Amino acid sequence: MEIEENDREVAGRSLDSPVFSTAFRPEQGVLWGYIERDAPVCFTPELIQAMRARQMAFAEQVKREVAAGRDGCIRYQVLASRIPGVFSLGGDLLHFSKLIEARDREGLICYGIDCVDLVYWTSVGYNLPVTTIALVQGTAQGGGFEAALAAHVIVAERQCRFGFPEVMFNLFPGMGGAHYLCRRVTQRVAEQILSSGKMYSAEELHELGIVDILAEPGEGENAVRKYIKQHDRRIRGITAIRRVLRSVAPIERDALVRTVTDWADLALQLEPRDLKTIRRLQQAQQKLSVSAQP
């Protein structure tokens, strides 16, 4: 079920783009953000820029609402994708491989930090009374999996698959995957997921406690609305609990940036066979991107 066109929208709608758009449901205080059907299946610099612009506009509006004493007006942010069968396949492997071939360490770090910021502010709810929700209705791989993990709540339809392929080319997830996994599972389980290269079903991750809500195919949006309806009257208490838990085991942006530096340095040590694997995965990304077009 799509969001009605006549729903009021938050300020900054002009920042919406052909690859990322938003719609606001005032009766539930939720901003829906959609990676559009024509968007890349991975986080290209252009898609990251469009999403970050929208994030910053959203955060500024929530700050104004809080300052005006309307701190309950905007309470939720949902990230979803309209690309058939794909939430996000993660990093832009073509851009990534070009930076490696050019030995561009600074470029790798800048790209990694942009990715970190995309998910970090989601993970902390912009340090505002906002609950972030990832609605996964297709494959979430690499950075796409990380983007889902960063949300406070993960809703996934039963057909979805998740995984980290980075170990296949001797790298690790650079957007904070290890940090976000360890908020949900033990370090041992996190290491198994990060190092296996395996694709996991939504059911498997639900059993592990990584996926919060398992929905039937096509019922993801309804599951999000149901979650909001069930939890909204307790949202102030839930937000406070999250804030306390975050102080107990904080994920700091500086730590994520240091991880990006390690990631970039390791990327520059990749061998020809690793780059060959990246090119093969990039070709698979490209095929999926083409097949998703109308």
Total tally of structural domains: 1
Enter the CATH topology name: 2-enoyl-CoA Hydratase, Chain A, domain 1
The gross shape turns out to be globular
Which sequence of strands runs across the widest sheet?
1-2-3-5-7-10
Helix/strand/pairing class, anyone? alpha/beta
Indicate the percent of residues in helices. Answer: 40-55%
Please state the oligomeric state of the protein chains shown: single chain
Uncertain segments of ≥5 residues (pLDDT<50)? 1-9
Number of strands: 10
Q: What is the succession of H and E elements?
A: EEHEEHHEEHEEHHEHEHHHH
- Kindly report the average pLDDT value: 91
The largest β sheet comes out as:
6 strands, mixed
- CATH architecture name: Alpha-Beta Complex
- Total DSSP helices: 11
- Kindly report how far apart the N and C termini lie: 19 Å
Full CATH superfamily name: 2-enoyl-CoA Hydratase, Chain A, domain 1
CATH class: Alpha Beta
Strand content: 5-15%
Question: Cα-atom Rg, whole angstroms?
Answer: 18 Å
Task: Give an account of the 3D structure.
With 294 residues, the protein is of the alpha/beta class. The chain has a single domain (13-292), classed as 2-enoyl-CoA Hydratase, Chain A, domain 1, CATH 3.90.226.10. The chain contains 11 helices and 10 strands. It has helices spanning 45-67, 93-101, 105-123, 143-150, 177-181, 187-196, 202-208, 220-231, 235-248, 253-267, 272-292; strands spanning 20-25, 30-35, 76-81, 86-88, 131-136, 139-141, 153-157, 161-163, 199-201, 213-215. A 6-stranded mixed β-sheet has the order 1-2-3-5-7-10, with helices on both faces. A 4-stranded mixed β-sheet has the order 4-6-8-9. The longest helix is centred in the first third of the chain and has 23 residues, at 45-67. Mean pLDDT is 91; it is low at 1-9.
